[in-house]
Amino acid sequence: MADIDEIMDMLDWNNSIEIQEKGRELSQTIRCINVFLQPGHPGHCKNVWDNCAIILAKRSDEEFTPYLYRLLEWLIDMNWPGAPCIFERLKNYQDKDWINYVLNDCIGEAKALKEDNWLNALLELKKKCENID
């Protein structure tokens, strides 16, 4: 079994598609998914975010629940690698009451911080979540 550092090395977008796919495959053995939430340590920054988003998008709502705030923070800049993937996955989150509760908290924070791009992404997600049942 590969360790998380080996997997992260494989997820780098500078690697071949085959190596990246192998890293995503091996990531399925990692139970603690917080390591894939916009990693920011040397060597594993935005260059792994697209693959981390793909990995996270395949996880269950149950696994997502403790990290909803952090996942919504990924939407601060929809140009960040992985942000569109996370947005699409969050649209399908099943517990509408919980995601709306967390969304409302983040919407308040985005307003307070005057983060208009984040606010727009959150409002768009809220609209999408309300229209899907």
Topology:
Elements: H1 4-11, H2 17-27, H3 46-57, H4 61-64, H5 68-73, H6 83-91, H7 96-113, H8 116-131
Helix pairs in contact: 1-2, 3-6, 7-8
Any overview of this molecule?
This protein has 133 residues and is mainly alpha-helical. It contains 8 helices and no strands. Helix 1 (4-11) packs antiparallel against helix 2 (17-27) and helix 7 runs antiparallel to helix 8. The longest helix is centred in the C-terminal third of the chain and has 18 residues, at 96-113. It is globular, with a radius of gyration of 15 Å. 26% of the residues are buried. The mean pLDDT is 94.
Task: Offer a concise description of the structure.
Helices cover 63% and strands 0% of the residues.
Mean pLDDT: 94
In total, the number of strands is 0
Q: Which radius of gyration do the C-alpha atoms yield? A: 15 Å
Distance between the termini: 39 Å
Query: Structural class, from secondary structure content?
Result: mainly alpha
Strand content: under 5%
Instruction: Name the helicity range.
Output: 55-70%
> Secondary-structure element order, as H and E?
HHHHHHHH
Reported for the largest beta sheet, the result is: none
Features:
single chain, mainly alpha, 8 helices, 63% helix, 0% strand, globular
